[in-house]
Amino acid sequence: MNRPTATTNNSQHNVCTYAQQSTFKIMLLGDSGVGKTCLLVRFKDDTFLSGSFIATVGIDFRNKTIVINNKQVKLQIYDTAGQERFRSVAHSYYRDANALLLLYDVSSIISFNHVRDWLGEIKEFAQSDVIIMLIANKVDKTNERVVTREMGEKLAKEYDVPYVETSAKTGLNVEFCFKAVSQALLEQTAATTSYGQSASKTLNSLVQLNNRTSKHSVCCLYS
Ligand SMILES: Nc1nc2c(ncn2[C@@H]2O[C@H](COP(=O)(O)OP(=O)(O)O)[C@@H](O)[C@H]2O)c(=O)[nH]1
Ligand SMILES: [Mg+2]
Fold first, then answer.
1. Is 112 a residue whose pLDDT tops 60?
2. Entry's PANTHER family (predicted)?
3. pLDDT value at position 192?
4. Secondary structure (DSSP) of 98-138
5. Which helix (H) or strand (E) holds 78?
6. What are residue 28's phi and psi, to 5 degrees?
7. CA 177, 180, 181, 183: dihedral to nearest 10 degrees?
8. Residue 107 Cβ < 6 Å to ligand 1
9. Is the pLDDT assigned to residue 15 strictly greater than 50?
10. How far, in Å, CA of 178 to CA of 173, rounded?
11. Nearest-CA neighbor of 106 among 150, 137, 135, 151?
12. 81 lines ligand 1 (CB under 6 A)
């Protein structure tokens, strides 16, 4: 299978000794304006960029290293370069992704309606065992919300992908998304026999648990 394997590195830890370091490529997809850049900045720097659209020049990425189950995981998180304005992100962009976070904005029915188009593209061009998460962002905008949780969950069920509600503004579930995906990817790497299956199972159960325990509060699974 032409999949980028997680790399290991045992030599560069001065403070803690970890058995191995895995590197995963996570990509953010979805219409322009849904909050992809803000989600990335919230996760990377724990801040919120408000105001007009934040320009993204070129395909941009950020690295962040996190620790899951005593393992170091290096995430390379790719943000789109504004190409998504035309809803045609280069297929090479996500062909070698390990995970795709597909966002829509709960205050924009158009961005929600386009999720089907995005999923169609993903099914056609991404790797068959890519981990996908559907993210309903901007849930802090309660008064302007037009896409309900039920609508999001129904669509996610139809496509068999986990559904998580986030707010890059308040930070709700932002860390959870990246950590849950990383945990699933780690299991995917470990599960050589049932490659792919155990990862989506892991992700689904993490998401279900999180949705049950923190419907309206900041995720506590990883804190
Ligand atoms: N209220 C609210 N606004 C957000 C949220 N995420 C992003 N925004 C705003 O939505 C606009 C577009 O965000 P941006 O990250 O540039 O979207 P992108 O085009 O998908 O990268 C900006 O004005 C952000 O401040 C959120 O969770 N809540
Ligand atoms: Mg952007």
1. yes
2. RAS-RELATED PROTEIN RAB
3. 52
4. SEEEEEEETT-HHHHHTHHHHHHHHHHHS-TT-EEEEEEE-
5. strand 71-79
6. -100, 130
7. 160
8. no
9. no
10. 9
11. 137
12. no
- Domain boundaries defined on the chain: 7-221
Q: How confident is the model at residue 3 (pLDDT cuts 50, 70, 90)?
A: very low
Instruction: Express each pLDDT in 50-61 by its tens digit.
Output: 766 566 555 588
Q: What share of the chain has pLDDT > 70, as a percent?
A: 75
- Helix 197-213 / helix 174-190 crossing angle, nearest 10 deg: 150
Query: 190 C-alpha to center of ligand 2: Å?
Result: 33
In angstroms, the CA 136 to CA 158 distance is: 16
Tokens of 175: 């860390």
- pLDDT tens across 181-223, in order? 999 999 888 765 455 557 888 898 899 999 887 654 444 566 5
**Which CATH fold would you assign to the domain 7-221?**
Rossmann fold (3.40.50)
> Quick one: average pLDDT of 56-71?
82
Q: Is the CB of 141 under 6 A from ligand 1?
A: yes
Q: Whose CA is nearest to atom 2 of ligand 1?
A: 138
Q: Which ligand has the nearest atom to the CA of 33?
A: 1
Q: Is 69 left (phi over 0), alpha (psi -120 to 50) or beta?
A: left
Q: Are 174 and 39 in contact (CB under 8 A)?
A: yes
130 has a pLDDT exceeding 90: yes
